[in-house]
Amino acid sequence: MPPTEAALQASFDATIAHHDRIEPRDWMPEGYRKTLIRQIAQHAHSEIIGMQPEGNWISRAPSLRRKAILLAKVQDEAGHGLYLYSACETLGVSRAELVELLLAGKQKYSSIFNYPTLSYADVGTIGWLVDGAAICNQVPLCRTSYGPYGRAMIRICKEESFHQRQGYELLMTMMRGTDEQRAMVQESVDRFWWPSLMMFGPPDDASPNSEQSMAWGVKRNSNDELRQKFVDMTVPQAEALGVTLPDPDLRWNAERGHHDFGEPDWAELTAVIRGNGPCNAQRMAHRRAAHENGAWVREAATAFAARTAQEAQR
Ligand code: FAQ
């Protein structure tokens, strides 16, 4: 006799309670599957759309060395997108369907990639702050309860750490340069600081998904916990760099053992998530055009795979 739904649920609950992993072959509640598809797809889309702001500077990198580094980083982001789409496919949804949902505006990508990159210092700031925030958020996801997602995150986090260091090294080099270069770095940090804090999502009391996602072990920490961790990690790095973080309320609180900091503009985050950020329309138009221009590659690859399979059968 097949196990009852109650028995399957009990076995799922026990796996979660033991911090063991749920694997694709295991029974899982529909809500758990949907939450994972939502979060992993959003993450995958973020990696692919996230190639655009930095990709903007590949043809204008200041030296061959910087160009090679930037090309490698942007290629890594494409790779992260692919690992994540693959992890998502284990939940019974195809990559083609996920891309359609993104293009139809039914799935999201990270707010941070809707801000423009106005100078080469932004390449460094994205590495330092945006990859830094991504690492804070993603290291705990290596222990997420869904096996394929956690395993993809382990590999991604290793590469993200390298990305963060390349950004910091670029900014450090600029800070050791001319007054003009130092001003470029400060101006870039001023623009990216608050949007980086918004990457962690709305505050906990306005985060509809956190409670259930944490109960299922999909998320291991709340949005505010991770935001605090990021601020505490970044302040000493800013001091070492010699840049100011644009928050008059930022100070060490000895009692809490953490930095206090100002409130991000949550209305801005809502507007950006709803599609009204500075670059939303541009990012989606570019993604749509890339998808359409790539149609012949997908067709050719599919035809080649079918022919190879036929030949193998013969
Ligand atoms: N942007 O209830 P919550 C990278 C949405 S790193 C857009 O708190 P949740 C690396 C949220 O989806 C960036 N939407 O949601 C890189 C939900 O809407 P929904 C990607 C946001 O899921 C670096 C609603 O608001 N990282 O790409 C944002 O529990 C450099 C309510 O929010 C990940 O995706 C936002 N910032 O927590 C690449 C990490 N925040 O779906 C290139 C994995 C919230 O119900 C260059 N994801 N929303 O319609 C997560 O950890 C979580 O999904 C959160 C949101 C923390 C982002």
How would you briefly describe this protein structure?
The chain is mostly helical and about 325 residues long. It has 13 helices and two strands, in the order ααααααααααββααα.
Structural account:
- It is an enzyme of class 1 (oxidoreductase).
- Its EC number is 1.14.13.149.
- It holds the Pfam family PaaA_PaaC.
- Keywords: Oxidoreductase.
- It comes from Actinoplanes sandaracinus.
- With 314 residues, the chain is mainly α.
- 67% of the residues lie in helices and 2% in strands.
- It has 13 helices and two strands, in the order ααααααααααββααα.
- It has helices spanning 5-17, 30-49, 51-55, 64-89, 95-103, 121-138, 147-175, 179-198, 210-215, 223-241, 266-276, 280-293, 295-313; strands spanning 251-253, 258-260.
- It has a two-stranded antiparallel ribbon with strand order 1-2.
- The model has no long low-confidence stretch (mean pLDDT 97).
**Main beta sheet, described?**
2 strands, antiparallel
How far from one another are the termini?
42 Å
Strand order of the largest sheet: 1-2
Q: How would you describe the shape?
A: globular
Structural class determined from secondary elements: mainly alpha
Helix content: 55-70%
| Number of extended strands | 2
Give a list of the ligands.
Phenylacetyl coenzyme A
Order of helices and strands: HHHHHHHHHHEEHHH
Give the mean pLDDT. 97
Which parts are unreliable, with pLDDT below 50 for 5 consecutive residues or more? none
- Give the strand content: under 5%
C-alpha Rg (nearest Å) = 21 Å
Number of alpha- plus pi-helical segments: 13
Pfam families: PaaA_PaaC
GO molecular function, one term: phenylacetyl-CoA 1,2-epoxidase activity
Organism: Actinoplanes sandaracinus
EC number: 1.14.13.149
